[in-house]
């Protein structure tokens, strides 16, 4: 992975970038854009980030990369959603998870080289490559009903969108994000409804689940209790998907009643893409380690992630970005210092977003990409 930091001082924007680029392979870009001047009013912060985004995509190193996905992490979604511009063909996600750097908004971008893009129903984007199509959905939600009813509606709608592509959750969905309003109270209801839906779709302990993050997050409408983003791939063979367990350090999520994979690796002819779910300070009995100790929990989370990456043949040098969720704003100073000391080059953002168990002070997710030869499969 190649890392770089690009600063646009006239905009007060810093872009921390990773790009996977190998000869005769399609490049993949991830970038975290943030303000270096947090005193700007909200409108100016968004304007500066949008100008910075345009410049990043015009840089000679990234000019051949098409934007396929972006997520805005904002401090006050009800008052800031109006600053989003009319969208292009990329999928656009917006969630209230306040950046702890002090700014009102941080932007995560993903771009892929040599693709054709098309919009889909349900705020979706279909990204076509010669052998596979990548399907990004964002902002799936329902405004009426209980958290269980909303979760069912969201998954029903997503399943319908996939079915129209001759795809389904079981065979094609690689990753979901479930943002739950008031996670301490509502998470259990989301888990129950997801499990019921998964059983109907043949996603069980005997088959497999889906890599996921379930975390505090809010939609612009206060009635929305569950908001989902999702990523699927069309054209994969079953043998290309590997579900990561990390059994020396983590237990099966089903042992404490939830239904997601610790991580998923997708093998292509030229590389491996790895999607690590939201990971916390847990052991292989499912117990929380280091209660009320942010320093030890942070180290354990990253140890758990390293174990999962190793299972897929990767390590932290292959990580494209990190999303870091904290329960307590007071822990930001330590976590920021720790991450800069240990992983200064990796694009990252630290967000206020309580994890599903109160004892977990921190949760981290990531994506990794590594060159691998798998000649039995088509290249990415």
UniProtKB/TrEMBL annotation:
Gene3D superfamilies: RutC-like. One of its GO terms (cellular component) is cytosol. One of its GO terms (molecular function) is deaminase activity. It holds the Pfam family Ribonuc_L-PSP. This is Enamine deaminase RidA, YjgF/YER057c/UK114 family. The lineage of its organism: Bacteria, Pseudomonadati, Bacteroidota, Bacteroidia, Bacteroidales.
């Amino acid at each position: 992975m190649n890392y770089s930091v690009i600063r646009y001082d006239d905009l007060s924007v810093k872009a921390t970038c990773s790009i996977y680029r190998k000869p005769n392979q399609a490049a993949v870009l991830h970038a975290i854009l943030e303000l270096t001047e947090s005193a700007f009013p909200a409108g100016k912060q968004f304007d500066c980030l949008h100008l910075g985004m345009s410049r990043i995509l015009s840089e000679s190193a990234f000019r051949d990369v098409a934007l396929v996905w972006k997520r805005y992490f904002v401090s006050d979604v009800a008052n800031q959603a109006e600053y989003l511009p009319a969208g292009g063909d990329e999928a656009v996600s917006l969630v209230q998870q306040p950046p702890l750097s002090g700014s009102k908004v941080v932007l995560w971008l993903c771009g892929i080289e040599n693709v054709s893009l098309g919009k889909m129903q349900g705020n979706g984007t279909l990204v076509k490559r010669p052998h596979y199509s990548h399907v990004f959905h964002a902002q799936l939600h329902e405004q009426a009903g209980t958290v269980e009813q909303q979760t069912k509606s969201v998954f029903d709608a997503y399943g319908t969108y996939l079915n129209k592509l001759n795809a389904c959750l079981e065979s094609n969905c690689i990753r979901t994000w479930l943002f739950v309003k008031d996670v301490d109270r509502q998470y259990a209801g989301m888990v129950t409804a997801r499990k019921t839906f998964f059983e109907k779709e043949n996603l069980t302990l005997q088959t497999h689940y889906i890599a996921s993050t379930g975390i505090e997050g809010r939609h612009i409408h206060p009635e929305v209790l569950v908001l989902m983003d999702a990523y699927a791939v069309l054209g994969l063979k079953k043998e290309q998907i590997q579900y990561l367990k990390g059994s020396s350090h983590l237990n099966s999520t089903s042992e404490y009643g939830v239904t997601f994979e610790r991580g998923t690796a997708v093998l292509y002819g030229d590389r491996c893409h790895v999607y690590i779910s939201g990971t916390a300070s847990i052991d292989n009995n499912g117990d929380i380690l280091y209660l009320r100790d942010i320093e030890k929990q942070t180290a354990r989370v990253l140890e758990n992630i390293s174990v999962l990456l190793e299972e897929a043949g990767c390590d932290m040098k292959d990580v494209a970005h990190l999303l870091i969720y904290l329960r307590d704003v007071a822990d930001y100073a330590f976590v920021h210092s720790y991450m800069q000391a240990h992983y200064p080059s990796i694009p990252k953002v630290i967000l206020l977003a309580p994890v599903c168990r109160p004892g977990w002070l921190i949760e981290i997710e990531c994506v990794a990409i590594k060159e691998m030869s798998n000649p039995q499969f088509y290249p990415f």
